Amino acid sequence: xxxxxxxxxxxxxxxxxxxxxxxxxxxxxxxxxxxxxxxxxxxxxxxxxxxxxxxxxxxxxxxxxxxxxxxxxxxxxxxxxxxxxxxxxxxxxxxxxxxxxxxxxxxxxxxxxxxxxxxxxxxxxxxxxxxxxxxxxxxxxxxxxxxxxxxxxxxxxxxxxxxxxxxxxxxxxxxxxxxxxxxxxxxxxxxxxx
Amino acid sequence: xxxxxxxxxxxxxxxxxxxxxxxxxxxxxxxxxxxxxxxxxxxxxxxxxxxxxxxxxxxxxxxxxxxxxxxxxxxxxxxxxxxxxxxxxxxxxxxxxxxxxxxxxxxxxxxxxxxxxxxxxxxxxxxxxxxxxxxxxxxxxxxxxxxxxxxxxxxxxxxxxxxxxxxxxxxxxxxxxxxxxxxxxxxxxxxxxx
Lengths: 194, 194
Description:
The structure is a homodimer. By secondary structure, chain A is an alpha+beta fold.
């Protein structure tokens, strides 16, 4: 259960976390199984936990006034899930988060995470790299949304996160790209011919 | 010159930085005047510095194959400017950054910044808050790009950063919002009537 998180930390911190330090991590995180279609967070609630996905697939989305789901984030094994603003500011979330497959998650509060950062150097190092990578990924996504056509956005996703295309239904991929399922279907057909 | 940066640090770190520590900051940062339309960064170059804008206005943009400028970021006093990915990874930048008004900037390399983080607790605290705020701002922008109409994106910008609307020409605001100047003009006229 905790092996994925241990590997993740060792990889991001570029060093092996000690058994003693990892015991602190294990005490701070709470394991939860979450079934397909079960909510991790509902709009209006405070996102008290951020979750490390050790197995499964999840999505974060809002629902517009016409009932359309707008997916802002998709996540699979070794990704984190949570509404960052609500988690940090303890404000009601604008988002829903639910499981797209049966999932195993490890949950931690922001208070516990800040404590861990202060106590465990490998966690501090991991979070610094995570913050950096997140900023870079977000800048790429903003750039794609401003500058790229729908086809280019699809190709970028295919190049950067090919695993997502295998794990999530086409309707969710379309929503994540900000296009209609019909447009995505047309793009895929055109690319298949090329 | 350095007063704006000192106030910024005191505000973000929620404490007063000592004279001794601020001397280290002053040694690490290099002052530069940059005139309207002068480049801070050109596409293909490595972004060796990140800049704190103590006076002026700047923009970060790419140029598409048809010669259209796509603005990814606007900045004024007390904001930072730089291509984060290139700055951290030392890879060639996909962006240009130039001054939209005559500007005063304080420049620092990533190496110096990491040294400062280790030496000066107020800098470490400041950067943690900056990282957090940046992640929240980027998530909002991604959400707007997926879920919001052009009018809603304009209203969001007006609400969140009203100063930007005063400082940058309409063509740049339109580019930042990912819409044509004609669409922006139509939206503004419609809102004036409401």
